[in-house]
Amino acid sequence: MALKDYLGEQLLGVLASYQPQGIVHHIGVVYPRADNALRVFIPKGHALAQGSLVTLHLDNRTGVDELDAELRVYRTSYKGRVTATDEGWLTLQPVEYMLIHGLGVVEQYQAPGYAFPSDARIESDLPTTPLQVLGPVQQREHHNKVGILTTLAVDHPHTTVLAFLNTEADDVFMISVPGTFKLRQLKRNPRCFFTIDERAKFTFEQAIHWNYTILEMQAHAVPPSMPLYEQVRTAFVLKNPWEAGFFLMDGLEMVHLKCQAVVFAGEPQPCPGHPS
Question: Which of 160, 164, 210, 218 is deepest in the core (most CB within 10 A)?
């Protein structure tokens, strides 16, 4: 089956790419084709050229505001190559993807000759967060149960959908069991990005005017011994009750993503929650 059979013929996508000027991020409307190529429209424009390698997070949770611990939506971190551009449009051919539903792989693809890159970077413990007290929780994001984490893997960025808690100061908190791909990437490079969108309430009739935030972040550890850990745990479960069971797991790691900048039209600007 084609990706569009699982994801639909029109959906939002979060795009990231390594470019000579740095890492660029966009959100756009994606139209999967029968051959698993993608047509992508980025309303605010882009600077991606033919041949650029990109990662595009895709999932079919549009209009879904209640999830569970198994994330029973179709989702993928689609690695592709730009084969054509036309103003705000891109055409992508797949290089590699793994379509996941719940905890299992449904479909996967690797282009002929492509091998998943090895990563010789050393993993190090994340620095302990400097934050001591949880600030006011961002109430307007209560209906946004999950967001998109972009980590800086080799060759292509990598994207993951996960539950989160955020504050009015643009602090974001996430949890992970040990050894996950996203956590290993953060321990190799704590710089990352987090996207919060209005997908839970999104309608394509307002495709040009949806609200979203892309934050450039730095990852820190929140040890269980810190009072902050319990403050975050309580607020996290209140927002995401299906996540409560994870806090009973041995070795669960809580991560504080501290905002460094807000990305507008692919370019970073000072983070209003943490002015420089």
Answer: 164
Q: Which residues pair with 98 in a beta bridge?
A: 108
Residue 102: the pLDDT is: 82
In a domain, 78, yes or no: yes
260-271 tens-digit pLDDT = 998 865 555 667
What pLDDT, on a 0 to 100 scale, did the predictor assign at position 276? 39
Q: What is the pTM of this model?
A: 0.90
Is residue 111 in some structural domain? no
How many domains does the chain divide into? 1
Structure tokens, 39: 């047509």
The radius of gyration of the chain's CA atoms, rounded to the nearest angstrom, is 18
Within-domain flag for 113? no
Distance (Å, whole) CA 151 – CA 191: 7
**Both tokens of residue 241?**
């009750």
Q: Are strands 89-101 and 38-41 parallel, antiparallel or unpaired?
A: antiparallel
Hey, what are 177's tokens?
């069991």
Q: State how far the Cα of 85 lies from the Cα of 28, in Å rounded to an integer.
A: 14
- Domain span holding position 141: 3-102+123-270
Beta bridge partners of 115: none
Contact 81, 92 (CB under 8 A): yes
Residues 38 and 53: their CA atoms lie apart, in Å, by 13
Q: State how far the Cα of 204 lies from the Cα of 86, in Å rounded to an integer.
A: 21
Task: Check whether 53 has a pLDDT greater than 80.
Answer: yes
pLDDT digits (tens, 9 = 90+) for 229-239: 999 999 999 99
In CATH, what number is assigned to the domain containing residue 13?
Answer: 2.30.110.10
